[in-house]
Design brief:
The protein is of the alpha/beta class. It contains five helices and twelve strands. The longest helix is centred in the N-terminal third of the chain and has 48 residues. The termini are far apart.
């Protein structure tokens, strides 16, 4: 009788020990599952917070949609491997009108891109094209070259073109009816309506523009063709043409 009592008591202790062991392992597995789920959620959140989620483009509005489309491969990439710089540089190389694309990758997953287009200073003889202060020929995105003077490039070299652009940039204001000829690098010529041909030489343009404006004021509405030679330092020679 006593033996059966102790057997039942021992069995109860064994069952309690087994339940305790099973409860311990269940708790361990539950904690492991919770930790794994938390780690996965943290990794997903970390990935989302550190990837490119949006692209914002500013600058020239007519080119903004094209740049945004060119940079779409950035979306979903890690911030440190977005490739925004390479994509924007490829966009710039394919479009001569774009002088620069500046990009910045923000920590909250936004890529900023700013377009700077070239500023035309003169038209060229090829239809619709313009040239900027650096001598780059391009198609203005807004087609705003009609109000600029015409730069005649035929027969010119780099030195002549550079001097002609310097003359244009120092003129202050140039009219669309003016034509600048840089075929002779040592004598940049300005063709005015009237007609009048102005010899500007190869430098010291600011002073020559001042003398030219004074001559044109004195001529008034005189329609007689003439040649105005400003190549001599501090002087101006005006000759009427037959």
């Amino acid at each position: 009788m006593v033996s059966r009592y102790f057997d039942r008591k021992s069995a109860a202790r064994v069952r309690r020990r087994e339940r305790s062991r099973r409860g311990l392992w269940a708790g361990i597995w539950t904690a492991a599952v919770i930790l794994a789920a938390g780690a996965a959620a943290s990794a997903a959140l970390h990935f989302r917070l550190h990837t490119v989620r949006a692209i914002s483009v500013s600058g020239e509005e007519s080119l903004a949609p094209d740049l945004r489309a060119a940079m779409e491969p950035c979306l979903g990439r890690p911030l440190w491997k977005s490739g925004a710089g390479a994509l924007s540089e490829g966009f710039r190389r394919d479009r001569p009108a774009v002088e620069r694309v500046r990009t910045a990758v923000l920590p909250w997953g936004v890529v900023l891109a700013e377009i700077k287009v070239r500023r035309p200073v003169a038209r060229v003889e090829r239809g619709g094209l313009a040239v900027d202060a650096e001598g780059m020929v391009f198609n203005p995105p807004d087609g705003g070259g009609d109000a600029l003077p015409l730069l005649r490039l035929a027969g010119s070299n780099e030195t002549g073109r550079r001097r002609a652009l310097t003359a244009i940039l120092t003129a202050g204001e140039c009219e669309a009816a003016w034509t600048i000829d840089c075929a002779d690098q040592d004598d940049i010529k300005l063709h005015l309506p009237g007609p009048a041909v102005v010899h500007l030489g190869n430098g010291r343009f600011p002073g020559k523009w001042s003398r030219l404006r004074e001559i044109l004021r004195n001529r008034g509405a005189d329609p007689a063709p003439c040649i105005i030679d400003l190549r001599f330092h501090g002087q101006a020679v005006v000759r009427r043409q037959a």
